[in-house]
């Protein structure tokens, strides 16, 4: 079903189209996605932002190092400060092609104060990334954080809920879809932003994604046109699963991230550097 809503976000009005796969199964699984993405917004407390850097090692892949920047709820902002009391769900976020984790500052500044832990792997940032390795990194981080949760010496000891969402932008969005198959027990939902198809194909992998999913795309995206990429990935997702597709009229590929030289250059080269909406 498709609806058009007008959402006022000064200084512009944002037109958003929703495409929702709503069925009996979705009625029971939608609360899982809604809980994960809105759970902490119901809390009165606004947390400060703590930060740490950890290089995890994946023994299943020849001790592959996975450098990760982690932002988490804390009582006092800073590096390596203690977490706030409580347990928190975890989001793994995959960056776009030749984009850096810091281009997604608005994500951690939005979600951490509301009670989420966000992990940003810094791997596969070259001009010849391995989409398979990046997807496996996103999946592996779920298991790595489960280990941190159980280690008495870890900053995260006793602070993690075993509820993981994988998110990603552009290449990271496609790899988000690929990641689900590598850790199906821990990944409870997926969310993508201007998802780009990958090699191996995220479109081909999408039918195996049977958890609630949320996809965002912009109609002004000429780097990864939704009709050829994000929408095809969405349509290929498990037809029995609860899934929602949000198209932002006039939204561009790079507007899902903070200003980033590489992404902005891509829009200039592609001829779509002046989207009709601005933020």
Which value, in Å, is the CA radius of gyration?
A: 18 Å
**What is the structural class?**
alpha/beta
Please provide the ordered H/E string of secondary-structure elements. Answer: EEHEEEEHEHEHEHEHEH
End-to-end separation: 28 Å
Characterize the largest beta sheet: strand count, sense, and whether it forms a barrel. Answer: 11 strands, mixed
- Rounded mean pLDDT is 87
Unreliable segments of 5+ consecutive residues: 1-14, 27-32, 39-44
Q: In DSSP terms, counting alpha (H) and pi (I) runs of 4 or more, how many helices?
A: 7
Q: Overall 3D geometry?
A: globular
How are the strands of the biggest sheet laid out side by side? Answer: 1-2-11-10-9-8-6-7-4-3-5
Strand content: 25-35%
Classify the helix fraction into a percent range: 25-40%
């Amino acid at each position: 079903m498709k609806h058009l809503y007008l959402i006022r976000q000064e200084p512009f009005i944002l037109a958003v189209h929703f495409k929702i796969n709503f069925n009996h199964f979705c009625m029971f699984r939608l609360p899982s996605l809604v809980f994960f993405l809105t759970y902490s917004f119901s809390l009165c407390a606004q947390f400060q932002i703590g930060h740490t850097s950890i290089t995890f090692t994946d023994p299943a892949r020849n001790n592959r190092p996975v450098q990760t920047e982690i932002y988490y709820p804390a009582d006092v902002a800073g590096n390596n400060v203690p977490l706030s009391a409580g347990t928190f769900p975890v989001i793994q976020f995959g960056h776009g092609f030749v984009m850096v984790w810091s281009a997604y500052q608005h994500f951690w500044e939005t979600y951490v104060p509301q009670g989420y832990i966000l992990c940003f792997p810094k791997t596969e940032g070259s001009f010849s990334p391995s989409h398979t390795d990046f997807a496996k990194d996103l999946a592996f981080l779920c298991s790595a954080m489960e280990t941190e949760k159980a280690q008495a010496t870890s900053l995260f000891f006793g602070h993690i809920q075993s509820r993981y969402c994988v998110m990603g932008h552009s290449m990271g969005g496609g790899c988000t879809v690929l990641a689900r198959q590598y850790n199906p027990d821990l990944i409870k939902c997926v969310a993508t932003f201007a998802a780009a198809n990958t090699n191996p194909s995220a479109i081909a992998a999408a039918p195996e994604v049977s958890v609630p999913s949320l996809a965002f795309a912009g109609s002004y995206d000429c780097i990864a046109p939704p009709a050829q990429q994000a929408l095809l990935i969405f349509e290929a997702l498990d037809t029995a699963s609860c899934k929602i597709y949000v198209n932002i009229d006039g939204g561009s590929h790079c507007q899902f991230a903070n200003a980033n030289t590489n992404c902005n250059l891509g829009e200039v080269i592609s001829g779509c550097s002046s989207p009709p909406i601005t933020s």
